[in-house]
# Entry
Amino acid sequence: MSLTLVKQRTDQQTASPRRVDGVAKIRGTALYVDDLPCADVLHGATVRTTEAGGTLQEVVFDPAIDWSEFVVVTARDIPGMNAVKLLENDQVVLVDRAFRHAGEAVVLLAHADPEKLRMALNGVSLVELPNTAPIFDIDAALAAQHEIIPGNIYTDYLLDRGDVAEGEHLADVVIEERFLTPSQEQLYIEPQGMLAHLQKDGSILVEGSMQCPYYVLDALVQCMGMDKDHLRVVQSTTGGAFGGKEDYPSVIACHAALLALKAGGRSVKLVYERGEDLRVTPKRHPSRTLIRLGANKAGELQFIDMDFAIDGGAYRTLSPVVLSRGVIHAPGPYKCPHIRVRGRAVATNHPPFGAFRGFGAPQSIFAMEVAMDRLARKLAMDPAELRRINLLRTGDVNPTGDVVGADCFAHAALDVALEHTHYYHRLAEYRAWNAAGHQTRKGIGLATFVHGAGFTGNGELHLASRVSLQALANGHVEILCSNTEMGQGAATTLVQIAADALGLPMDRVHLAQTDTSRVPNSGPTVASRTCMVVGDLIQKAAGQLLQRLRETAALAVSHDAQSFAAACTRLCAAAGDALVTAQYQPPADMRWDEQAFLGRAYASYAWAAYIAEVEVDVLTLATRVLDFTAVQEIGNAVHPVIVQGQIEGGVAQGIGYALYEDVLWNERGVMANDRLTNYIIPTSADLGFIHVVLLEGGLGAGPKGAKGVGELPMDGPAPAIVNAIQQALDIDIRQIPVRPEMLLELTVSGGN
Amino acid sequence: MPTTMRINGKAFQSSSAPNARLLDVLRNECDLKGTKEGCGEGECGACAVLVNGKLVNSCLVPLGQMEQAEITTVEGLPEDSALARAFVQCGATQCGICTPGMMLAATALLMEHANPTLEEIRWGLSGNLCRCTGYGRIYAAIAQAAGGSADV
# Structure
């Protein structure tokens, strides 16, 4: 088993070609939804419920406004089913009577003049009979005094290995804690939006900012009552997503399409302003974790017992899947004979929570990793040493009962991280600094974790993704897939994988626009799956294309771009089929029992050890991350510069999650700090150094052993930073974000 | 009364109301779509442009203040420059929505400091939010464009 440090690779320059979307973005010519040219467009707006659930009694239109100038859409105008297509049809497209949260869409308006539209929004009043006892808290929902759905539980999972009671007997030291994590806003800088056109043939085209064009298409089919052939979804350049544009674009697309259907052939643009985007679109699930860990005197974990609950909000949306990932990742990369993780997604009257980078894992990993430090302290053991004793090795059984194979780099990641940061030296240095009574306290904290890439368990099998390659007569090749470029570099990485597999320079390969009328369904762009799963399909399709060209167009076994082009010309001239398609086949050893949480949950796990070094000002209690070191084994870095950017960006979001970002709620369960003035994300002035160390073991399920990395960097920063602050101030922290106000309370009430 | 200014080196006259946002004038009247709206309240910098060589957020600037102003948007930057090349090579753009504003912030920074220190780069970009990169590759691009090492 060999492990390569990416910086030592001699081909790093050639391995990181220029981004294919780079020049257009730098010159400002890339077209985002709000930039799409569109003559005679109408602007759309949404009238929303204001109470935290209840029933809609009446919609009153101000008689002083001439409504004939406006396109007006209500639930009665929906030609198909009034339900947003997701896991369950529990969420309406437009409220007709019953509703569950403030901010649900009731009336859609469109007008050519944005000013008139703004005034008209105030001319629609809703008579709402409010829910008298809304629920906004996880434990209040579980107490179920008032039920939103039966028991207020969307999903109840149990991962149960061994026997926790037995583990309790064997444990010499036990810790027990309760941890809270807040919601977090994705804060893509481009707000959500869609542009819908009713075509002359009666079909509808929707363009916009999205991660998953086929999710949007399926939602339109259901809501518009039209078949797929009369609906077309095209992704425009997408200005960030991070999960936030996984499910909600379906809602906006349905709204824009409904308006376009009534607009007499004029196109309708529905682009949210920042405040509306913040108030109504899904964010990271808040969580509450009760955790108990037990270890023997040697520090070997004897049991892990967790009760992990997430706030799903008012509708089910993606919560069961978020919960599943949270449960599977909860016990971390550790060997432990007795593990019980109960996971529940509960119903509240908040707007539904959704996908955000990490998808449940950052919440449960936060609890586990801070608890590990608590356990280390009770054992009077160094936190790195406690992890070293318990980290999985090849041949161990992991928390889902799967035997860990050769692709296990937990110890390697930890060793490199400790060495890279001079951990023990720093530890001593910071202790001395703190003892000397300076104006600041310093600490160094770590988190070790794994992140599974791709859909959980049998998910990829159900998706049955397909990717096509189209050879053109001039020797260029087009990739047809539904996976979207949203900043993460997929457009470049996928082209690079195809060019490499075809033996062509990158400028001969092009990624077709994600247009559902042209590209097959290669699954959603989520779950760190694009490079690994879709990249692998592209590689397979490339093999098929080469084989076809060799068999039917006399392509030599060894070819260059010129002879490849000649073969393509011959194939196309002979009217041969120049399109090949590859479909996902699961690995032979991929067995997963989704009821028992038993088996191989993911085709590949990426392994990581993150270390935060922090400084806390004793006077202001403001925390600064001085250095952040992210060491991860990711199989193969297809494009090292893009991977580095992904990790740095994810770490920055994780630093925000740990220190700054907090969604505050008003009394009706709506985001109160709905502006960039008061929802704080890190600026360049806030962030210290972020060091990225990439290790390549070459054993992942993707191209040349690549693994998915998109979500990974979100998991580790918050616990590493909290562990560092705890060490610096000698206090116990139980929730994030760690703002000075919280530290003031903690330092006054208990610690130093 | 119309407002007369120079946008990307060309004279332009707008008859919009003096309280119209410069952002809307640029996007809707001049069809300069490279200037983006991210927040509409001057926090994110996606709408940043240069006005008389100074970096400003165009969503906060009323047209009435622009009489005789010299305005540069991303479309007015040279198509090929050390900065543009460095941005592509170093991976300084991801989703790209903040990139035009970043390019202008970087241009303003390099006008003030031809060889900026890392600290100067960080402060120079601190009015422009990027949610994708964590800023590291942007620092690298600016350092490289200034003739220094991109290894930051």
